[in-house]
Amino acid sequence: MIPTFAVVGHPNKGKSSIVATLAEDDRLAISPTPGTTRKAMPHSFSIDGQPQYVLIDTPGFQRAAAVLEWLEARATTASARPALVAQFLEAHEDDPRFHDECELLRPILDGAGILYVVDGSKPYGAEYELEMQILQWTGRPRMALINLIGDDDHQAEWRQALDQYFSLVRVFDAVGADFETRVDLLSVFGELDPDWREPLDRAVRALVEERAARARRSAGEIARQLIDCAALSEEARLAPGETVEARREVLTEGLKKKLRRREARCREAVQGIYRHQSLARDEPGQVLIDTDLFTDSGWRLFGLSRERLALSGALTGALAGGGIDALLGGASLALGAGIGALIGGAGAWFGGGELAKVKVLGESLGGQVVQVGPVKSPNFPWVLLGRAWLHHQLVAERNHAYRAEISLAVQAEENLMDALPDALGKELGRSFARLRSRADSPEFVKALTEQIDQVLSQSLTEPSPSD
């Protein structure tokens, strides 16, 4: 049994927004113009191809008074009311005057539960009581959702009216609801009908597990992006008489394009994981990560500070020098580790903003072969990860009904990666030092993915506590 709910109410009260949010469907049309929804349309939420529940987006009531008048004129006993509603549908199936009422009542009589949506920012009116009475006549389990679309608050008067017709009344911000709020609402749906409790509990568990799995899959995509970008280069054979310097700029731009395209593919993959294929591109957070990957401001914002970069380089150098236990334990360093740390730290400090060097690979009868890249700047993987981290939070926390601008506190910050816990930063520093040499190792890819998964679990809007 798949729990099914008809989302009904007055026109333009947020019905489609609720469906988009709970079904995680950003393709569903949401418009301030009344009458956008003309037919009852089912939207199922599925995990691994298995439908968990179905939400039916319906047109709004248009002639509630006339429908109720027709029903009351033929009323006999309360037990006969659902059959009388069915008679109304049969009698007016092809009547254009009652097209919307027939569309919204049909799935209810077919067995759907009722989610009645009102706008709690607007005053209660007697015309809504007509709609509630009609829904009561269907005899189906029903729940009311108070959706706050505007700034005013009329919840108290709405509750007094809704409590008379609905066994459950909840406030639900269709556009602003976070993941936990959506999960809580689904759990409440199980109270409408005992037969729905088990499948909805199962759906909630699956949804929570799926969210964790989405983060892991996103971490895997980001790990593969970092590994690929660490190996990318651009090369060309010089024309007769052409100098290396003359070709440097062209090759550098070619490398940048490759890196941008690889980053874009990663973003598309992450958005697909979270069912945000049509994610809007006009909000400040999105504009922020759309800043060119290679600008100085972008590196300052998303990477490590020079101090933390030097510390990371020192750690990497110490590892190469053989002093890992001493460095992590805080004891005096062995000579090899000390030299390695000094070299690594200096390289990170002075090489933090450098993109890629030019190499002459060889010379033959066809001329010199010149290569730009791979990028060896120690800060580059940190910058890529910082941008991916912000993008992931923007996508993962975005409500599927949210079509307006959003902002993140990180906009005003710099050196985003400095916010990571120290222990995690050290692990990443060691992995970044081995990006190219260990790229083909499944164990390395798994470890890097797990580290990035930990990064994605950190909040960008609040500083992460240091270990």
Question: How large a portion of the residues is in β-strands, by DSSP E?
Answer: 5-15%
Through-space gap between termini: 48 Å
Task: Please estimate the helix content.
Answer: 40-55%
Number of helices: 17
- Look at the helices and sheets and give the structural class: alpha/beta
Strand order of the largest sheet: 2-3-1-4-5-6
Per-chain topology:
Layout (H helix, E strand, L loop, with lengths): L3 E6 L5 H9 L17 E7 L2 E8 L6 H10 L7 H11 L7 H11 L3 E7 L6 H13 L3 E6 L7 H8 L5 E4 L7 H11 L4 H38 L2 E4 L6 H30 L10 H6 L6 H7 L3 H16 L2 H6 L5 H17 L6 E7 L2 E6 L7 H17 L25 H11 L9 H15 L11
Parallel strand pairs: 1-3, 1-4, 4-5, 5-6
Antiparallel strand pairs: 2-3, 7-9, 8-9
Helix pairs in contact: 2-5, 3-4, 7-8, 8-9, 8-15, 8-17, 9-15, 11-15, 12-14, 12-16, 16-17
